[in-house]
Amino acid sequence: MFELRRDAYVNGRWEAGTKRFAVRDPYDGAPVAEVTDADDAMIDAAVAAAVEAFPAWRAKPGPARGRLLRAMAAAMEADAARLAELCVRENGKAMAQAAAEVTYAASFLVWFAGEAERMYGEIVPASQVGQRIEVTREPVGPCALITPWNFPYAMLTRKLGAALAAGCTVVCKPAEQTPLGALAIAQLAEAAGVPEGVVNVVPAADGARAGGRLVAAPGIRKVSFTGSTEVGKLVAAAAVPDLKRVSLELGGNAPFVVLADADLEAAVAGAMIAKFRNAGQSCVAANRFIVEAPVAEAFTGKLIEATARLRVGRGSDAGVDLGPLVDDASARKVARLVADAVSRGALVVYGEPPDGASRLVKPVVLAGITPAMAMWREEIFGPVVGIRVAADEADALAQANDTDAGLVAYVYTRDGARQARAAAAIESGMIGINEGLVSTAQAPFGGIKQSGIGREGSRHGLDDYTSLKYVMRRP
Ligand code: SIN
């Protein structure tokens, strides 16, 4: 049964440590819990536990590892309501979205339970008689999983599921804003009977210090990080001296392209998810709306109508669609981006520019966005729509590619040929065509360009946690 855990989880034990830090409700700043602030010694102990547990865990048959993942998923689903409540308290998101996140998070555990059963190797035809070429997939080793605050459960299970399925052990360092979700998952692992040392969770107030210690730890063989591109580059650099394997799931700058023949009702429905899921705090959030001239006015009008129905408030209150942004820095950033756009000529066509003082940011729709505005290049991570008109299809696709990021793109058009051209032309790891949400356990999630390295979820998700071993054998 789920109960709020506040201590670090190291080697199968709940460790109070010597220092604690406050987790606060983003809605009103009220304290939610005082959580262990893992010091360097505790982080080192967690790495040592993961190293020690690795040989036995990798030796466990894949189906047995899969059974434990399924047990974790079942427990997560059984306690979904309370886990969703906890998520609302530490992250602030609206309750329906917290509930959806619990389901989404559990789906990765189920998916990778299946993958643990299917970690196939290969027998390759050899050139010489008597030779046998055998290829197996071996777990990389103890992994550092560094996760963000925007999806405290799902971003962890997408990594943890793959790592455990592959036979890797893990040390998780959750974001300082939302450590409770990761501790709840550690509790699920403990209750399911995952052996001690296989899953360790070390919350820390200073994420850079703890993350740096973890990435540099000699026992860690692989680092998986989800967060900003800026920090992802630091993580990658820190992994270089020991040539640790790195997976990076970084920022997006998603174009949301609406072509002239699009079903505008469908485009608006997709935009509401792509833009406002999690109050816009997602790396797959639509960041740049690019609308072909003939439908720009009609699309904008319909989008405003739908946006005007959104309710902002405390995530746990009935009828609330958008909770607060996670912290003051996020609120200030969104206000800065809107002010910058307005100062460079953007028109506020719905809502009011946020003041940066409140985390409760109401939706804003801006028209006349140009590449000179910071929000064309930076992730907004808030409920702000910025619309730019495109002269034609070619212009829209060129605009879509005008970014260093390449995580996801959304395109709305009814025309099959235009769909195919857009899918081929847009430089992005994922594309939603007439679809505003592409995230799902069975598909490879990840980016190109500066949006990251590697894929999470799908059968490819296991690749990042395994190495191929080739054996030439004369039986
Ligand atoms: C993210 O924002 O980091 C991921 C969102 C998702 O999995 O849909």
Query: What hetero molecules are in the model?
Result: succinic acid
Mean pLDDT: 97
Q: Strand sequence of the main sheet, in spatial order?
A: 14-15-16-13-12-18-19
Low-confidence stretches: none
Radius of gyration: 23 Å
This entry's quaternary arrangement is single chain
How helix-rich are the residues, as a percent range? 25-40%
Strand content: 15-25%
* Major β-sheet annotation: 7 strands, mixed
Using the coordinates shown, work out and report the CATH topology of the largest domain.
Answer: Aldehyde Dehydrogenase, Chain A, domain 1
CATH architecture of the largest domain: 3-Layer(aba) Sandwich
From the spread of the alpha carbons, the general shape counts as globular
What is the CATH homology-level superfamily of the largest domain?
A: Aldehyde Dehydrogenase, Chain A, domain 1
How widely separated are the two ends?
51 Å
Number of domains: 2
> What is the CATH domain class of the largest domain?
Alpha Beta
Number of β-strand runs = 22
Number of contiguous helices: 14
Class of secondary structure makeup: alpha/beta
Keywords, please?
globular; about 20% strand; 6-stranded mixed β-sheet; binds succinic acid; alpha/beta; about 475 residues; Aldehyde Dehydrogenase, Chain A, domain 1; 14 helices; Aldehyde Dehydrogenase, Chain A, domain 2
